[in-house]
Design brief:
By secondary structure, the chain is an alpha+beta fold. It has helices at residues 11-18, 22-35; strands spanning 6-9, 47-48, 56-61, 64-71, 74-82. The chain has a single domain (6-82), classed as YaeB-like fold. The protein is built from two helices and five strands; from the N terminus they run βααββββ. The chain has a five-stranded mixed beta sheet.
Length: 89
């Protein structure tokens, strides 16, 4: 039987979430609960980071990025941040 994963937040990620607009926060939490909590393959929803961030995973949710570390059967949310898009002319 495949293992399921639980989700935890670092205090820094909790603080970042607390500063977000309530509707955005609800949307991010809903996405995490729907896609990551109790899932069997959290890698399917995101991508591995490389270089100095090797070992971390990123998830794109709308205009936000969630960065996590997957250890055993736990997904530790480290960072929740808004993606900044810079237009060039």
């Amino acid at each position: 039987m495949p293992q399921s994963y639980s989700v935890r937040f670092t205090s820094a990620a909790q603080k970042q979430l607390s500063k977000l607009d309530p509707a955005v926060k609800r949307g991010l939490i809903a996405w995490i609960e729907e896609n990551l909590e109790d899932c069997c393959n959290p890698e399917a929803f995101g991508g591995a980071l490389s270089g100095s961030l090797k070992g971390l995973w990123k998830y794109r949710v709308g205009n936000y990025r969630i960065v996590s570390r997957i250890i055993d059967n736990q997904i530790m949310i480290l960072v929740v941040t808004q993606c900044v898009i810079i237009a060039t002319m």
